[in-house]
């Protein structure tokens, strides 16, 4: 059985009296200080002992200082380790032991330490700008509250809104923890200078722990984006995807434009962005003026998203069926066939505008298989609902 015990630090990282009292209380419970990892403090099980704990601000390199340890040892203190790279931790069984006999020396050390922690604020500000700037397109004032109200799943699965909200909350908690820590350190300096006995403020440490916990998925998501792990396309051949030639026939002529006639499946995801697929194909069209353009030939676009929960997929299916895309009609519920959990189809009638331009017919197919939702937008003479079995096989193979 391991002798190591880990606890969340309940006091702020700059709350010297609070931390000293807490570490002394833990020693009295048989937990001897070993070190820290972020908001966590490590202890070793030992015999309960009554000690006085002193935190000495680190003013140089983050290495153990043998000379400083020797000076403290002469006064009856023993070195225990470092606390978050901010303090050397010393303990003494003598409740009357003095760590500093010169108030001016202590005041100078605290003043220098306070200035060094002000510099941490610059790094924290950079982190705020970096994360919030990276996901700024997901800010609610950019998305629009009405859009969020009526199409929440569309907004929350766009890959930026959830990271932005988590980043904003996590950074708010961390920033609050930092500024409270500066206030506590300033209050401690003033109290020591006046000869008073300051007290700690329990609970501030939980702000940092909560902030880092909320921010962790955003950090993972950002790393995935940075290293390109969010995009993982694969070949169309062997993918099982429904193609335009499956609908129009093998002799149907496809566009020679690689962007309009994809020979691959666009695919990707991150921790905070649901797994998604995209595929499109267009019939042959002309780039010359007067010839048929991309909107005048049959084409097919397929969007697929896999949500973490089936309830979210159901919600997204309802959202999609409320939308009308380019003249599509009402959605018809086709029940549950071919193993699919939800099938909705909206036909699109062809029409001609005042200039004489002919707009193609087609249809929109919305399918749900458990937690996966498909949206297929087709322009042409075929009926997508006649290909449900092929679409179902495609979704089952994802």
SSE topology:
Blueprint: E1 4-8, H1 16-28, E2 31-37, E3 40-45, E4 52-57, H2 66-74, E5 78-83, E6 87-92, H3 103-134, H4 140-143, H5 145-150, H6 152-156, H7 161-193, H8 204-226, E7 234-235, H9 244-248, E8 264-270, E9 273-282, E10 299-306, H10 310-321, E11 332-333, E12 342-348, E13 351-352, E14 358-359, E15 362-369, E16 372-379, H11 388-396
Antiparallel strand pairs: 1-3, 2-3, 4-6, 5-6, 7-8, 8-9, 9-10, 10-16, 11-12, 12-15, 13-14, 15-16
Helix pairs in contact: 3-7, 7-8
Describe what you observe in this structure.
- Helix content is 38%, strand content 23%.
- With 398 residues, the chain is of the alpha+beta class.
- The strands form four sheets. An eight-stranded antiparallel sheet has the order 7-8-9-10-16-15-12-11, sandwiched between helices. A three-stranded antiparallel sheet has the order 1-3-2. The protein has a three-stranded antiparallel sheet with strand order 4-6-5, sandwiched between helices.
- The model has no long low-confidence stretch (mean pLDDT 89).
- It has helices at 16-28, 66-74, 103-134, 140-143, 145-150, 152-156, 161-193, 204-226, 244-248, 310-321, 388-396, and strands at 4-8, 31-37, 40-45, 52-57, 78-83, 87-92, 234-235, 264-270, 273-282, 299-306, 332-333, 342-348, 351-352, 358-359, 362-369, 372-379.
- Helix 3 (103-134) runs antiparallel to helix 7 and helix 7 (161-193) runs antiparallel to helix 8.
């Amino acid at each position: 059985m391991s002798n190591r015990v880990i606890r969340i630090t309940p006091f702020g990282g700059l709350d010297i009296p609070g931390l000293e009292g807490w570490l002394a209380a833990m020693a009295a419970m048989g937990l001897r200080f070993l070190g820290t990892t972020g908001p966590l403090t490590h202890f070793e099980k030992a015999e309960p002992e009554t000690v006085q704990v002193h935190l000495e601000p680190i003013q140089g390199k983050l290495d153990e200082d043998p000379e400083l340890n020797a000076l403290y040892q002469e006064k009856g203190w023993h070195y225990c380790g470092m606390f978050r790279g901010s303090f050397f931790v010393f303990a003494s069984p003598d409740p009357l032991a003095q760590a500093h006999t010169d108030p001016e020396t202590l005041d100078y050390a605290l003043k220098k330490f306070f200035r060094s922690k002000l510099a941490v604020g610059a790094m924290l500000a950079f982190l705020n700008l970096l994360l919030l700037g990276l996901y700024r397109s997901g800010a609610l004032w950019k998305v629009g509250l009405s859009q969020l109200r009526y199409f929440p799943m569309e907004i929350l699965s766009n890959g930026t809104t959830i990271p932005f909200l988590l980043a904003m909350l996590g950074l708010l908690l961390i920033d609050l923890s930092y500024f409270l820590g500066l206030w506590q350190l300033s209050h401690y300096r003033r109290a020591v200078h006046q000869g008073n006995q300051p007290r700690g403020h329990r609970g501030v440490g939980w702000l940092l722990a909560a902030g880092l916990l909320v921010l962790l998925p955003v950090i993972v998501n950002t790393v995935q984006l940075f290293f390109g792990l969010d995009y993982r396309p694969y070949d169309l051949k062997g993918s099982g995807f429904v193609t335009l030639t499956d609908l129009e026939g093998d002799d149907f002529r496809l566009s020679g434009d690689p962007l309009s006639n994809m020979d691959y499946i666009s695919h990707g995801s991150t921790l905070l962005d649901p797994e998604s697929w995209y595929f499109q194909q267009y019939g042959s069209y002309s780039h010359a003026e007067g010839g048929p353009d991309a909107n005048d030939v049959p084409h097919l676009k397929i969007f697929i998203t896999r949500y973490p929960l089936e309830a979210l997929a159901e919600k997204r299916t309802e959202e999609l069926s409320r939308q009308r895309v380019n003249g599509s009609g009402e959605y018809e519920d086709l029940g549950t066939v071919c193993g699919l959990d939800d099938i909705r189809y909206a036909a699109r009638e062809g029409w001609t505008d005042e200039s004489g331009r002919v707009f193609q017919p087609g249809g929109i197919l919305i399918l749900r298989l458990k937690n996966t939702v498909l949206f297929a937008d087709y322009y042409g003479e075929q009926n997508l609902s006649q290909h449900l079995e092929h679409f179902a096989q495609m979704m089952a193979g994802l």
